[in-house]
Amino acid sequence: MKFETHTLKNGMKIILAPMQGAQSVTVMVMSGTGSRYESAKENGMAHFLEHMVFKGSKNRPTAKVIAEEIDSVGGVFNAFTAKDHTAYYAKVDARHFQTAFDVVTDIFRNPLFPKGEIERERGTIIEEIHMYEDMPMHAIFQVFDRTIHGKHTQLGRPILGSKKNIKAFTKADFKRYFARNYIAENSAICVAGSFSKTTVLAEAKKAFADMRTGALPQHAPYTHKQATPRLGIAYKKTDQTHLILGVPSCAIGHQDEMVAEVLAHLLGGGMSSRLFIQVRERRGLAYYIKAEQDAYDDTGLLYMRAGVSNRATKEAIEVILTEVRKLTKTLVKDTELAKVKEYTKGRLSLSLDTTDAQAAYIGYNALVRKSSEGIETFNAAIDAVTAEDVRRLAKRIFTTQNLNLALIGPHTNEAALSKLLKI
């Protein structure tokens, strides 16, 4: 994957990722802001604003006009909000690049935040909150975030915010948040697929040369402090328990970040990973079990997640911890390490098969990771990981005091579950 970055005088980035043979083009505008950049009273604003951008803009005054323009060329458009970035995009047949570009840049630059639409959208977002609360496989992430980070931290708060906040936001609130966070230095337009480089650069310069500038948004610094294992339970009458067991790990750019990626995939990456074999294949305790590494600019998380029978919860946790302990004591064999490295590289490559995925990747790299490096650099770093690196990192992060267990299910015996949390 090849891409190139151009920077306007005001700091706005234009990132281009041509894909040979592609029939589509994705135009995405990304801002390096998200729920981490909200105060407690603002929690949920980044996500609510993402919805509101589609409700009317200077040149397209209603949601219907915006939707019809993309629908008229058979395109798709959407947006997403994370803790540290937010993006808006349209994906169309390459012949309709101009339509996608015009719509996306207009809603990003010129949202109207109509009062009537704000009132209507409150109900939509509250129902979105209800939807995820009724989906334990998704809701468990918020229980885990509260458990490991603390409910009063920016990382511990939900991206969707609280219902109380959603009901209270005003048009003035949206305008203040938008002006503070959506600035040129903190934004990038990402174009991936089939396009004319000359056309894209000319259009981007014309659309964003006068975008407002200002101080880069700042989030509260986070330092993880933990002296004992933590347990978070969201009691719910369910037929299945969803759990996440995790520890603080490596931040973006940490020397062991790629070691953590390999370590996570050794545990739960693919159908031949250790946890998949032990928890699902040999014991039949879960349908899904995975391990992942997430990174922010000042902290990271390595966690294992699964959906298990309520009766098998204790056994599943014990099996997971057994596999974790093995990695702190025994070197991984060369054949297994080589397999996991190829799995890690291959999964990234496969995830970038589409133009929208590539647009998101290059924007995230530029705005969040502050990097212009591509997949080749990632692959080289993965290849450099050794078995001793894996054991060293495992010994450092997998300690009893670092353990955090979050569960959703019909569980009330906190003492019995807490006793399990030992390395």
Describe this protein's structure.
This protein has 423 residues and is an alpha+beta fold. 44% of the residues lie in helices and 19% in strands. The strands form two sheets. It has a six-stranded mixed beta sheet with strand order 1-2-6-3-5-4, sandwiched between helices. A five-stranded mixed beta sheet has the order 7-11-8-10-9, with helices on both faces. A hairpin with a 5-residue loop joins strand 1 and strand 2 (13-18). The longest helix has 19 residues, at 115-133. The two termini are 41 Å apart.
Structural class: alpha+beta
Largest sheet: 6 strands, mixed
CATH class of the largest domain, named: Alpha Beta
**CATH level-two architecture of the largest domain:** 2-Layer Sandwich
| Overall strand count | 11
Q: What's the helical proportion of residues? A: 40-55%
* Widest β-sheet, arrangement of strands: 1-2-6-3-5-4
> First CA to last CA: what distance?
41 Å
Cα Rg? 22 Å
Indicate how many domains the architecture comprises.
2
Mean pLDDT: 97
Q: Into which percentage range does the β-strand content fall?
A: 15-25%
What's the CATH topology name of the largest domain?
Cytochrome Bc1 Complex, Chain A, domain 1
